[in-house]
Prior knowledge:
The protein is α/β, with parallel strands linked by helices and 154 residues long. It is built from 5 helices and 5 strands; from the N terminus they run H-E-E-H-H-E-H-E-E-H. It has helices at residues 6-19, 45-48, 55-67, 85-94, 135-149; strands at residues 26-31, 37-42, 75-81, 98-103, 128-130. A 5-stranded mixed β-sheet has the order 2-1-3-4-5. Strand 1 and strand 2 form a beta hairpin. The chain is globular, with a radius of gyration of 15 Å.
Amino acid sequence: MYTLKPMDHAFCEAEKAFSEREVPIGAAIIETSTGNLIATSHNEMIQRSDPTAHAELLVIQKACQILGLSRLESCDIYVTLEPCPMCAQAISFARFRRLYFGAYDPKGGGVDHGAQIFQASSCHHKPEVVGGMNEAKCAQLLIQFFQKVRGTSS
């Protein structure tokens, strides 16, 4: 039996976002000790009329509700795009063990670019970060979205 890898779950969510005309970013949370998938989500900013309805925030909320916890120290989060500063801060607050992300985001990223939230002296928890997982595949979906759905090239 074939099971999806964690980043594949996140990518499937990004594809759902694309089909809903949302910026195609997906996220998945895995319990590290068991490898079990806890929750998945994708951007729902347009659907919810909420600029904070990013994939990362939604999946964190789902996982906390499912596990009955306010911290996700026994979990890893997988995201198809480098988290923005808002989401990076939420990842820190949730106390994830590791953050895995796909494409880098030089314009809006908050981990390796921009605010670099985990490097700030005010950051109380820095997860281990692995960037560039399936980078080309994740980036290509974003490029297709902006070219086909919004009719722009950036």
